[in-house]
Amino acid sequence: MSVVDSVNHWLVGLKEEVETECMSVLQGKSLSKESSDFIFLVPKSTKDHVVTIHQSLVLIKTEIKKLLRLIEIEKWSSVHETSTKLIRQIRSQISNCKSSLRVIPSHVAELQATLLADCSNLAKHSKYDIGNHSPGSDPVTKIVASIECNLQVMTDNILCHLAKNVVDSCARLFRFHEENCHRDPGGGTVVSGTKSDTTGVSGVSVAIRESDRALLIDCLHDIIVVGLLSNYMCSILAKAGAVGILLEICRSSVVKFARCEALRTLATICCVSESIEHFNQNGGISCLAILLTDSIGSETVSSEAAGVIAQVTSPSLANCQLRMSLLEHIPSLVKSLTGLCLDARNPEIFLISCAALANLASIDDLCPDYFGNFDTLVVLTESCLKGKAPSIFAKEQVVTVVEAVTCQESSSKDMTPDIKLAKLLVSFLKERSRDGATVLELVAFENLLQKTALTVGRFCQKLPTAVVFVKLHCIRHLVRLCQEPGARSHSDVVLTACLEAIRRIFSVCGPNHELLKDEKEANKLVASQLIDSYVLCSSADESFI
Hints:
The protein is mainly alpha-helical. The chain is built from 25 helices and five strands. A three-stranded antiparallel sheet has the order 1-2-3. The chain has a two-stranded antiparallel sheet with strand order 4-5.
């Protein structure tokens, strides 16, 4: 190796070792007030601290994974460089944690000291000099594992403290409004000793200054921002009591102005099991049922409440205790959500309400009976024909509700869909995925076609109903989906559902029915065994060399 190369290598290593220490010293120094370059910095809010620390943790974890991969392949020159970068990030994270709280708990301070010691060990063991032996992988891996564990525990502690502060700030503002709003002997409301013109709920007037309103709304928005960081942060917020205080705000007539924001916040953080448990323990379903019933004329509040129901009843968040609480309120919920679908002024509200109905149908077997009592299918059909369900997601939710009705054997045999519903189902079979569709859109498109085909097959258990669908050219669309893999996004589950629907119609009508004589392609599919038809259609887009 030449002298120049050796010197350059030494300079690079020197820079990496010194840079971390320089940054630590600089971070500990305040800016001079006499400097002409003085920059006035706005102090970070608690929410900003949470965002900074959480995002830094994500970056550090990514760097740790990268470092462990380099250690595994023993690329020691890169290990040292990555270790130096990791140490710098950890020191910065420790600095962020120190600045986020006025007083650092003693156990957190001990973790920070341990982390700094681990960083020193990592810097020592990861050194690599060209020409010398490489450091062993085991000691370095153990140090990195220790760093990862201590970093996670330290960050968890800090995030829990900060999340509690965010929730407590919201709770204090709410309590302030509750305690300072009281009835005036004349029937009005006095706030902080000042009488003002107000509007209220159930005869109770509430006067709150705009600045105080804005503060509470900002606190709720902070919880939303923190919750959107990750499901993990939603769990922390739930443990900090966020769900309970949000439901109190929803019930309160004093801060009615904050209901929509509180419901939106609930829908944001109720995406994990911890939040659902707290939601159930605090009577969340009862609260939403009352809001949906009492919020006639307030579409905004009703739609936000429907959004929470759709979130907490999501099939991916199964909760037995919540199901038990739902059973008592399902009739009133179905009635309110059906009314919301009927009165929805925009597609978004219709989608949310319909999604809530679809989720309820998967929870209670009696739900389809309530759909009949409140004309839910009629309302959804009319809404779709009026253009309230333009998106593939809304159409999927509609057919999910219809399918839930046909899943009950007694209902599907006795029920005959009206001509409008039959036409709607056939129109769903005509749907095509758009170019550049997202993964979620493709999944919704596949579900729409599969559920529609299954629903048609279940409806066609009686001759009159089967004839209705044949006259609407339903078989031709089913055959097209079977024979054109691209039309069904190459989905085999859609193919199976379509083949079953065709066979059901032929079985009920009879192969010699005059309406089926012109369906030559369908006759070919029915003439073969189901497995043969499936193999023929599923391999239609394959090429062999």
